[in-house]
Design a protein that fits this description.
Layout lengths: L1 E5 L5 E5 L18 H4 L6 H7 L3 E11 L16 H13 L13 E14 L3 E4 L1 H4 L4 E5 L5 E10 L4 E5 L10 E2 L10 E6 L7 E12 L9 E4 L11 E3 L4 E11 L8 E5 H14 L5 E2 L2 E4 L3 H6 L8 E6 L4 H4 L7 E5 L2 E2 L5 H8 L5 E8 L2 E8 L1 E2 H10 L17 E3 L2 E5 L2 H7 L9 E6 L4 H4 L7 E5 L2 E2 L3 H13 L4 E7 L5 E7 L2
Parallel strand pairs: 9-14
Antiparallel strand pairs: 1-2, 1-14, 3-4, 3-6, 4-5, 5-8, 6-7, 7-8, 10-11, 10-13, 11-12, 12-15, 13-14, 14-15, 16-23, 17-18, 18-19, 19-20, 19-21, 21-22, 24-25, 25-26, 26-27, 27-28, 27-29, 29-30
């Protein structure tokens, strides 16, 4: 099994299967590239000399009070300090520290994380990955001439994994410039510089292998894939184009072994530059917020909504206090364009919305019940919504739940009952879920089970028509069959009121 890894010491980012394909065989012979292109640039020495002094090593130290953790730390896999904590406790159990190293005080433990970064302003502004510094108490920047400076964290953002540091040098630093990542094409040469395995300034070269990679590490995944060798410790280091401009920040690798296998991922400069600007100006991010829950449009959903082709982002629900609801968006709408940008798939929308200015009036083109309409919506601020939701988080109801009452109807491999007080208590359904029928049983061999519909969830609509009683389900299914429909589009809510659309084939 392969691992997406962040490239400082340790830290798995996400699990993924590793697939290795051999040359030739069932896939046919490999095509040979012309010799003039196969050898690459004659030399990168001049470029390496130009850019190397802009790249720095980052040492982040975390000190924790031992009384809060007991004999060994219980930390999530992938924290920036997991490997070194493990080493610390191994030594502690042996009753001694490392060579020429004093044991830390009994009430504290310390751990170091090594990564990379680069200077973007001669006055001392430095960029790295957020996961390199994480919750560090102390951050030190090490330059190519051996100079070490303490760094202040100006701001950091976990969503695109970037952090902005400030040091106070005696004289201006050599700084790198950002380039236009949008101009980079698959096959363009790139150079990575960083601190792999703590070795210090290391230069490697390769090409852009792919664009717009989504590795499910965050809501705004949009990575370059490169075969330039990047390893643990390269996190936060720059990816340069042949003009010596930074067009990406090296962030993750796909590796079964922890070392480079030629599949690395860099966040494009076009993604990080607006975030860096906000962190420098405000010390925090200020992202646009639409207030919708969205899901992918697959072939079955596209057929149910008469979309013609798979495209857009399907609105599964709107936030009660969000801009989308105030602007007239509804569950079942398919967003086709946002602020003039075509939405090809649902993953595109969050990135475009987040980059839009807070308070901007944007035009949203959508498809509703077969008709294309346009709405104008004033964007809110994502961070304000996140804070509000955190404050409103309620504890689960532990009260004893009596059995649901009401007649039971079966259809599409499910059994349904009315959304009455008994059902609400049994399945802890929140008052915000006002109408629908409750799923009480799901046939494990049914299409509903394949689409992960569970007992306790609520069917609110079928083909965008409301369902109020169990008998409505059977009646609407029969009507769809008579109309020659091949599938039914269900609006499904969980007990907390979070909604999604599920398309089921009709028997």
């Amino acid at each position: 099994m392969g691992l997406f890894k962040t490239m400082r010491h340790g830290a798995s980012l996400a699990l993924a299967g590793a697939l290795v394909l051999g040359a030739g065989g069932a896939f046919g012979p490999l095509l040979e590239a012309p010799a003039a292109f196969a050898k690459g640039p004659d030399s990168l020495a001049d470029l390496a000399a130009q850019i190397s002094d802009t790249v720095v090593n980052i040492s982040a130290t975390q000190t924790m009070d031992e009384k809060h953790a007991g004999a060994s730390p219980q930390m999530e896999p992938g924290t920036p300090f997991d490997d070194l904590f493990e080493e610390f406790f191994r030594r502690r159990q042996q009753g001694k520290g490392g060579p020429d190293q004093e044991s830390p005080p009994p009430h504290e433990r310390r751990s170091n994380s090594l990564g990379s970064g680069f200077v973007i302003d001669p006055s001392g502004i430095i960029i790295t990955n957020n996961h390199v510094i994480a919750d560090a108490n102390d951050v030190t920047v090490i330059f190519t001439n051996g100079q070490k400076l303490k760094a202040e964290v100006i701001g950091k953002d976990s969503k695109v994994d970037v952090a902005v540091l400030r040091v106070k040098p005696d004289k201006p630093l050599k700084a790198a410039k950002f380039g236009d990542s949008e101009k980079m094409r698959v096959g363009d040469w790139v150079v990575a510089v960083g601190n792999p395995f703590g070795l210090g300034g290391t230069v490697t070269a390769g090409i852009i292998s792919a664009r717009n990679r989504n590795i499910d590490s965050g809501p705004y995944d949009n990575y370059f894939q490169t075969d330039a060798a990047i390893n643990k410790g390269n996190s936060g280091g720059p990816l340069f184009n042949m003009d010596g401009e930074v067009i990406g920040i090296n962030t993750a690798i796909l590796s079964p072994s922890g070392g480079s296998i030629g599949i690395g991922f860099s966040t494009p400069s076009a993604t990080v530059e607006p975030v860096i600007e906000q962190l420098q100006k405000f010390g925090e991010t200020r992202r646009g917020w639409l207030g919708v829950r969205i899901q992918n449009v697959d072939d079955t959903i596209a057929e149910s909504l008469n979309l013609g082709s798979v495209r857009g982002a399907l609105v599964a629900g709107t936030d009660d206090n969000g801009p989308a609801k105030a602007g007239g968006l509804q569950a079942g709408d398919v967003i086709l364009k946002f602020d003039g940008v075509e939405i090809k798939e649902s993953h595109d929308l969050p990135k475009i919305v987040a980059s839009a200015p807070v308070g901007k009036d944007v035009e949203v083109v959508l498809l509703r019940q077969g008709k294309q309409i346009t709405k104008t919506i004033k964007l809110g601020r994502l961070e304000d919504n996140e804070k509000q939701k955190a404050e409103q988080t309620a504890k689960a109801d532990d009260a004893e739940k009596p059995p649901a009452t009401g007649a039971v109807v079966k259809a599409l491999g499910m059994a349904f009952t009315s959304l009455d007080d008994g059902a609400r208590q049994k399945y802890a359904i929140k008052p915000g879920v006002a109408t629908g029928v409750v799923v009480t049983n799901v046939d494990p061999d049914s299409g509903a089970a394949e689409k992960h519909i569970l007992p306790g969830e609520i069917i609110m609509e079928i083909n965008q028509e409301p369902v109020k009683e169990p008998a409505d389900v059977a009646g609407k299914i029969d009507a769809l069959k008579k109309d020659g429909k091949k599938s039914a589009l269900l609006l499904v809510a969980n007990a907390q009121g979070e909604m999604r659309f599920v398309a089921l084939s009709l028997p």
